[in-house]
Amino acid sequence: MGETEGKKDEADYKRLQTFPLVRSAAKMIKETMDKKFGSSWHVVIGEGFGFEITHEVKNLLYLYFGGTLAVCVWKCS
């Protein structure tokens, strides 16, 4: 039982340590897209989320990075 708890604690620790990195990555992606393609871009980065959004035609990017980390970028005016 102790080994399982140790793995869970390690996963929680990694999640807490990567949060500022993911948050700054989302901010950086949004700012870059706003400068290059105009304003109204939105970015979500995370694991295990679903979405239903309204976006402009040909202005949606949804990809997985590193196997489990999803990145969703879309433009909405």
Automatic annotation (TrEMBL):
It comes from Spermophilus dauricus (Daurian ground squirrel). This is Dynein axonemal light chain 4. GO terms for biological process: microtubule-based process. Belongs to the dynein light chain family. It is found in: Cytoplasm, Cytoskeleton, Cilium axoneme. The keyword Cytoplasm applies. The keyword Cytoplasm applies. Consists of at least two heavy chains and a number of intermediate and light chains. Its main location: cytoplasm. One of its GO terms (cellular component) is axoneme. Force generating protein of respiratory cilia. Produces force towards the minus ends of microtubules. Dynein has ATPase activity. Keywords: Cell projection, Cilium, Cytoplasm, Cytoskeleton, Dynein, Microtubule, Motor protein. It comes from the Eukaryota.
